[in-house]
Amino acid sequence: MIAYLQGKIITKEDNALVVFAGGIGYRVFVSVRVLEEARAGQEISLYTHHHQRENEESLYGFATENEWRFFGLLLTVSGIGPKSALAVLASAPVEELAALIAQGDPVLLGQASGLGAKTSAKLVAELKDKAAKFAGRRGVSGDSVAGDEIEALMNLGYSFNQAREALKSVDRAITDSGERIRQALRKVG
């Protein structure tokens, strides 16, 4: 099993990198964030998950050990395969996804990750207790953005990412949710 890979990026594909390490070119599926930062010729280090099925072997790569471990946790949920788990990880930082799961809000998780209602509910039900350790002391966005504030902005038509970014820019000294939402609305226009 390949758990870590360090080498030079040979080429970028739509959803993968080819990494040359030890005389071999490894095709590694990566998140959009890793793909955006990657450049051909650049050295890269990735934690990897080696996925094996009857007729296929795949490598999935992650920039951090935390992402790699959270990916493994997502795979424990029946119906979540590696491609779905990678898509979930691409939607938001691990700490935010874990906080959404730990808060037990499948609707907000589904809106953030693009998962369907049933899959989001299953993730919350099966991982609620296990996900909390990945969220740590962070809130939904890592700096005191509450899920209900994001949900309020999303109900006004903003995407999860727009709502999250607007709320992250609000002064931390403001603790009233209504005022935080008003300030965020001023930021998004």
UniProtKB/TrEMBL annotation:
Residues 1-61 form the DNA helicase Holliday junction RuvA type domain. GO terms for biological process: DNA recombination; DNA repair. Residues 148-187 form the Holliday junction DNA helicase RuvA C-terminal domain. It comes from the Bacteria. The RuvA-RuvB-RuvC complex processes Holliday junction (HJ) DNA during genetic recombination and DNA repair, while the RuvA-RuvB complex plays an important role in the rescue of blocked DNA replication forks via replication fork reversal (RFR). RuvA specifically binds to HJ cruciform DNA, conferring on it an open structure. The RuvB hexamer acts as an ATP-dependent pump, pulling dsDNA into and through the RuvAB complex. HJ branch migration allows RuvC to scan DNA until it finds its consensus sequence, where it cleaves and resolves the cruciform DNA. Belongs to the RuvA family. Has three domains with a flexible linker between the domains II and III and assumes an 'L' shape. Domain III is highly mobile and contacts RuvB. Homotetramer. Forms an RuvA(8)-RuvB(12)-Holliday junction (HJ) complex. HJ DNA is sandwiched between 2 RuvA tetramers; dsDNA enters through RuvA and exits via RuvB. An RuvB hexamer assembles on each DNA strand where it exits the tetramer. Each RuvB hexamer is contacted by two RuvA subunits (via domain III) on 2 adjacent RuvB subunits; this complex drives branch migration. In the full resolvosome a probable DNA-RuvA(4)-RuvB(12)-RuvC(2) complex forms which resolves the HJ. This is Holliday junction branch migration complex subunit RuvA. It comes from Candidatus Falkowbacteria bacterium CG23_combo_of_CG06-09_8_20_14_all_49_15. The gene is ruvA.
